[in-house]
Each structure stands twice: as C-alpha cells, then as structure tokens.
Amino acid sequence: MPHQVAAVSEIFSSLQGEGTHMGERHMFLRFEACNIHCEYCDELGKPGYDFDLDATLESLKRLDKEFGPHSYVSLTGGEPLLYVSFLKDLLPKLKEMRWRTYLETNGILWQALEQVISWTDLVAMDVKPASVTKERSFLKEHEAFLKIAVRKETFIKMVCSKEIDLGEFKELCEMIQNVITRHCPTGAIPILWNKINKWDCEDPKEIPRPSLRAPQSGAKQSLGLGTGSAISELGIASASTGTLPRNDGIRIPLILQPMSGEIEGHEDPELMRLLGELQTVGLGILQDVRIVPRLHKILKIR
Ligand code: SF4
C-alpha cells in the first residue's frame, strides 16, 4: 500500500522555545495547514511540500546525524493532527528509531489525538481563548482533548493578549482543573517516559528517567544562535499572596505566553503586568501557572 504524503513546510534542528521543555534541542517537523485561523498566527502562509514517509525519515536521520543528539522530534504546524493518517505511519517508525515524540497542537482535534496518543510521549496543548484568537470558543473540544492527553506527559499553553476576557480565562482554568481532578488518578503524576503508556506507576520514584543517546563523535553542535538579549526587569504584578496549595503531585502546568505584536510580548510592560494578574487568578484554581515568553524569539533563532 502506498504511504501517505503530508504537506511539510520545514524540517530543522533548533532549541525548543516554548513550554516546559524550553532549551532542549529538538528536531522540528512543521506541517503546513491548520483547521483554524488565530488572528495573531505567524506560521500560516509558509508553503508546504509533499513529503512521504521515507523522505521524512531520511531528512530526520540526516538532521540528527549533523546536529544531534536531540531530545525529541517535535511535530508542529499548522496543526499536525490534520495529518493523522500520515502520523499513524510516521510515529511508530519514530519510536522504532528510539526517538521521543512531542506533539504541538491546538488541542481541538481530539478524535485524531485518540488515534495517535499511544505513540506520543508528550502533548504540548494549546487552549484558545476566543477573546484572543477572534475564532469561536473551543471549550468543549479542549475538554475532550485534555481527557485523552493526560494519559501522557502534558502541559497547556495559552497565548494571552491585552484583549483576553477574564471570565473566559477563569472558565478555561476551571475546565482544566475539572479534567485534572476527574481524569488524573490521585497519587500518580502525568509524566510518563518512553515505553510507559498507562497509569501503571503510583510512586514517581519508580518511574524510569529518560536516557538521551550519547553524542556522536564529530557531531556538529552549532545551531547558529544569533545575538541574544536577556530578560531583565519585566514589571510583573506580584502573583504571590500566600502559600499555594500543593497537594498530590498532579502537575499539568499552564503556560501563559505573551502574544507578540509589533514588539515581542515580553517587551510590553503593560501586557506583562496583565499576565501577572492572570497568573494570580489562575493560581486560585490550578496548581501550576507560569509566565513564559518564547525563548527562540529572545535568542533570535529559528
Ligand atoms: S492554531 Fe496555531 S497554527 Fe493554527 S492558526 Fe492558531 S496559531 Fe496558527
């Protein structure tokens, strides 16, 4: 049977610039199309080229040989889950290669996630406030999606602008907390490494840690990093109003990411103050709410 073909915009090696695995070296496989159109999107419009399974694997192998070792193969977009038939061919091959798989997704296509979750090591899931994207609300889809995602290591990212509606933000936080409470077993943590595909480990100490492959001799280490700039005073409103409730180790971090406009979001003091306020509100509902700007934008790398 002929292999599926997917529209791939780019395949490259760089540092993961978002979320809880920021700074790790990843191979990125960017798919072209998306099922929605966020007002702030800076990825749509990159043309895609037909890649079949063999061409994709060859590109990844070459990249890993030249710039490896890599912590993950990051499937990004666009929306990777639009290409679920292709992923059902690709993901088992990536696991055969002993690569860990990282799915960056807008958190809507839960039926597609169900078909590939067993080969996915980490889900980096967006939740999309309509007040920011100017799309419709995807609350119900996000809820169905998160119920599946929590079988694996998961974090949630929310891009926030100054237009975010506080009521909508609280509703999204409450949905997340509701899923954590009802669908993550008490005493387990949703951080499951290679080859562990179910809730089979009550004691986090028993969970095997990932072992990265040893660097290949002579492998190039350069990523072509541009001139960096450090974050200094951000003027974030205080989010600490006392001791936060820390209970059973269940952690699905919510990452609040400042939206970029004409300037990068983290360079806008007003937006950063608002994010501090959102963090305070979020921490009244969730255990782990972080403000994290995009590292690759700060470092000016791809
Ligand atoms: S979900 Fe992501 S790729 Fe799709 S339009 Fe929104 S920001 Fe762009």
Question: TL;DR?
Answer:
The chain has 302 residues and is an alpha/beta fold. Helices cover 29% and strands 18% of the residues.
Task: Tell me the number of structural domains.
Answer: 1
**Spatial gap, N to C terminus:** 36 Å
Output the CATH class name: Alpha Beta
Mean pLDDT: 83
Unreliable residue stretches: 187-248
Radius of gyration, whole Å:
19 Å
Q: What is the H-and-E element order?
A: EEEHEHEHEHHEHEHEH
Strand content: 15-25%
What does this structure look like?
The chain is an alpha/beta fold. The chain has one domain (5-201, 225-299): Alpha-Beta Barrel (TIM Barrel), CATH 3.20.20.70. 29% of the residues lie in helices and 18% in strands. The chain contains 8 helices and 9 strands. The chain has helices at 53-67, 84-96, 110-116, 130-133, 139-149, 166-183, 269-283, 295-299; strands spanning 5-15, 25-31, 49-52, 72-76, 101-105, 122-126, 153-160, 254-258, 289-291. The chain has a 9-stranded mixed beta sheet with strand order 3-1-2-4-5-6-7-8-9, with helices on one face. Strand 7 (153-160), helix 6 (166-183) and strand 8 (254-258) form a beta-alpha-beta unit. Helix 2 (84-96) packs parallel to helix 3 (110-116), helix 3 (110-116) runs parallel beside helix 5 and helix 5 (139-149) packs parallel to helix 6. The radius of gyration is 19 Å and the shape is globular. 37% of the residues are buried. Residues 187-248 have low confidence and may be disordered. The structure holds iron/sulfur cluster. Residues 34, 36-38, 41, 43-44, 77-79, 106 line the site of iron/sulfur cluster.
